[in-house]
Amino acid sequence: MAESWSFLDTSEPNFRPLVVIELAKGTKKETVEWFTERIVDKKSNGGAQLLVKPLVTENGDETIYLVGASHFRLLLGAEAVGLVKECNDNSMRTFTYSSRKTFKDFADDNHSFLTMAECQYIIKHELENLRAKDEKMIPGYPQAKLYPGKSIVRRLLTSGILVQIFPLHDREELKKLRYTWYGRVKVGYQPLDEVRCYFGETIALYFGFLEYFTFALLPMAVIGIPYYVFAWEDYDKYVMFATFNLLWSTAILEVWKRICAIMTYHWGTLLMKRQFEEPRPGFHGVLGVNPVTGREEPVYSSVKRQFRIYLVSLPFVCLCLYFSLYVMMIYFDLEQWALDYHAENGSTFSSVMLFVPSIIYAVVIEIMNRIYRYAAEFLTSWENHRLESSYQNHLILKVLV
């Protein structure tokens, strides 16, 4: 990369806020000054090299801060996070600032080259990767301890100093998207590219799947109407319908994989380099040097992580699975008891009692799901996964079980 982070110009004549930072009321002035200084400081000094402006409320409080970045800074950030863009030869390649002229629709004055979602992702990435250098604590809060490599944003969140970080809406772009998406009566496909530019690839894929799945269910619905209208007693017809549903559900899943691959390739997420993925904000460890990238980042023993997974998380998940099966057996016993009670009495009260086991079981399931989800998230964070993808995979595995 020809341009260095150290010489990055952080000035921007037309400041465009993209991300909002909300601090707790009564946050000490020295803490605010230290945090904002780390945000605007140079990358070589451990900062994020972004732009920050306070939003003064009516009562004079400065708890809301708007974060943006210069166009040059966003382009270098796009290279740092490994964004994939379309080139002039219609191929998809990882964006680099040195070869920026080879990418389609790029111009030095074209600030729409990066979508709003990509710009916000870059800023969020830089904020989450602000890590402590020599600080032992957050200034003004001795109880909020820091160590080299600790995520500053995460410590501020857990200490209650930082309330939340969220992306900012663009009302004009939102109005345009609302009109093209659902603001007019027109039967057609959703503007998934526009949704992706504004909300990001994850949200666009979600609505793309809903659209595809809705159309994919139409053949099953059309064929199933006669089965619903006519009370056929020929069970061979139901076997044929069940066989069709089985084959069709397999077909639509495979077709969706192809459509999903087409969209993700077109949007550049299929080719993103996961092997050089940055450490997740919650990853902690002694500050060291990554032997692959040469960057300074936290280092944590993989042996300790494996011990935590197989000696703590795995037994806990198996115990929860056994407990859930045990509760299900209790439900079956209660259901059988209600049926026997209704057979003996045949009263209105006994007929009402038939629904009690299902109601109790539904309530117990909801409570157990909430407790287990909290425990799964806690254990997955405690396992201290380096990559966000690894963290999500282990969390999804626990939840699916």
From TrEMBL:
GO-annotated cellular components: plasma membrane
Main location: membrane
Residue span(s) of domain Anoctamin transmembrane: 195-401
Record-annotated membrane-spanning stretches: 212-232, 238-256, 309-332, 352-372
GO molecular function: chloride channel activity
Alphabetical list of InterPro entries matching this protein: Anoctamin (IPR007632), Anoctamin_TM (IPR049452)
Membrane topology classification: Multi-pass membrane protein
Entry's localization field: Membrane
Species for this entry: Semnornis frantzii
Top-rank taxon: Eukaryota
Name used for this protein in its record: Anoctamin
Family to which the UniProt record says this protein belongs: Belongs to the anoctamin family.
PANTHER family: ANOCTAMIN (PTHR12308), ANOCTAMIN-10 (PTHR12308:SF40)
Keywords: Membrane, Transmembrane, Transmembrane helix
Pfam families xrefs: Anoctamin
